[in-house]
Amino acid sequence: MKKVFLLTLIGLMSVIIAACSQQSAETITNENQQDAVEVKAEDMAGKKVNEFDLTAKETSWKLSAEHTINAWTYNGTVPGEQIRVTEGEVVKVNLTNQLEKPVSIHWHGIPVPNTEDGIPGVTQDAVKPGETYTYAFVASDPGTYWYHSHQNGVEQLDKGLYGTIIVEPKNETNRDRDYTLVLDEWESEKHQEKDTEAMNHSSMSMDSMNELNQKGAMKGHDMSSYDIFTINGKTYEGNKTLKVKKGDLVKLRFINAGYMAHQIHIPIDYQITHVDGQKVNSPQTMKGSMFEVAPGERVDVEFRADGSKDFSIDRHGEMEASQDMKIDIAYEEGNGQKLKHLSSPGKIDITKLGEQTESQFKTDDEFDVEYELDLGTRMDMDTEMGMVWTINGKTYPNAPPLNIDKGDRVKVTLKNNSMDNSSHPMHLHGHFFQVLSKNGKALSASPIRKDTLNVKPGETYEVAFLADNPGNWLFHCHDLHHASNGMVTLVKYNSFNQFYKDTGEVDNQPE
Question: Which residues form the signal peptide (predicted)?
């Protein structure tokens, strides 16, 4: 029987009460008598085990010639040590905490078993100072991913507590060059002064105001305080040039570990081959266009080095820090000539990537469960930021969960009605979802599968996923200023056999 749940702001409780008949009560009783649903089992027998030791510790880190910070790191670098394995191999990670605060590791984008998701208060206690905790899972899905702490993430990621994990496909030829580029923003010692200046918007250009408004700078956390932008933990002058040779097939993996969307321009012909680690079908060639990488998203780019001219990859935008998010690509035996950037390059819409082909879901399919998530805001002067970000009018942990059965085909409608004009990069743990439609129009290009989708002001998306990974999973905004102030809910499998209970020994802070 089809089960439809539309979670709306108005009248939700009255609808539920009106629907509570003797028949529905009997249905609930019958469902509660189902056999328990267990965590996804993984067969590790006979598989290659890749073991890594990651130590969370404080490190002096030089962002630029002028700015050195006390970063929180995995193994002493920003980003932390890259984990690179082949599809089908086992990843075993021993996390040792040498910080003064509890930490964890979440494997962003990888559909690990629920036991390995790294969410304090949901799947584990945060790892206390001086303790070691081990994660283990099979890397079954090739792609570009990253890992980060999910304990008080809004602060711990801001300090640098993240790294990258690459799962290479086992039946695919390696690229000649493979570079990972992690985007992030930082606050300098001058950011308090900049906060004051940002209050006087009359001195800002309209483009700069729009850029900040889209990320919620005019309300809550002032995003203008992020006055240093980096690639791989360094500003432009601190990054080494990426070398290529004529004829090389070059792969660039962009990962956004920050809280702002970044418009990235590559002034040559290239293809976007993957989004969030998932393949784009028959990707088209882009002619020096610009693409966006939102918080939590990954974009894989490939190009054939034709040997013509060196070039730079940069961030477009009027914010002063934009000039820091830049890196050069140069030919090993080149003549030193460099391509110029267009001032207004075309912008790529990810919903129009590639060619249409068979997909798992269609907009007119019948789904077992349907939910509607209204992404909004509410003034709340009892909070430090004076505002909370809500899902269906509620904040975590009071936002109603998405209750599903194992095997359900689930459709979720995401609507951004936030009054602060902010974007919401919504990230689903434990699953990939397919983007079905944007603003009521079905996608006509490649099936786009993601785990993080940036829903901009006024936009509506329909997404769908198969309930094939039992557990309790977060579904939240990856601007963690929004998540830590409410924009989080849970996807909960019915009849799930709970494996975790909060011990009360740790102040678990899942966002």
Answer: 1-18
pLDDT > 90 fraction of the chain, expressed in percent and rounded: 80
Question: Which regions of 234-283 does DSSP assign to beta strands (E)?
Answer: 242-244, 249-256, 262-265, 269-275, 278-279
**Distances 218 to 225, 257, 374 between C-alpha atoms, Å:** 12, 22, 21
CATH 2.60.40.420 region(s) of the chain? 12-33+360-493, 49-172, 226-348
pLDDT tens digits for 363-381? Answer: 999 999 999 999 999 988 7
| DSSP single-letter state for residue 127 | B
Residue linked to tokens 């404080």: 58
pTM of the prediction? 0.89
Q: Which of 221-225, 299-303, 402-406 has the lowest mean pLDDT?
A: 221-225
Going by their DSSP bridges, the two strands 409-416 and 424-428 should be labelled as unpaired
CATH topology assigned to domain 12-33+360-493: Immunoglobulin-like (2.60.40)
Give first-to-last CA distance, the chain, whole Å. 36
What CATH code is assigned to 226-348?
2.60.40.420
Q: How far is CA 268 from CA 245, 284, 342, 345, in A?
A: 15, 13, 11, 11
Q: Which of 252 and 173 is assigned the larger pLDDT? A: 252
- Say how far apart CA 389 and CA 477 lie, in whole Å: 9
Cα distances (angstroms) measured from residue 216 to each of 119, 396, 474: 26, 19, 22
Backbone phi, psi, residue 315, to 5°: -100, 130
Lowest mean pLDDT among 42-56, 128-142, 381-395, 485-499: 381-395
Task: Report the pLDDT value the prediction gives residue 10, as an integer from 0 to 100.
Answer: 36
3-state helix, strand, coil in the chain (%, to 5): 10, 40, 50
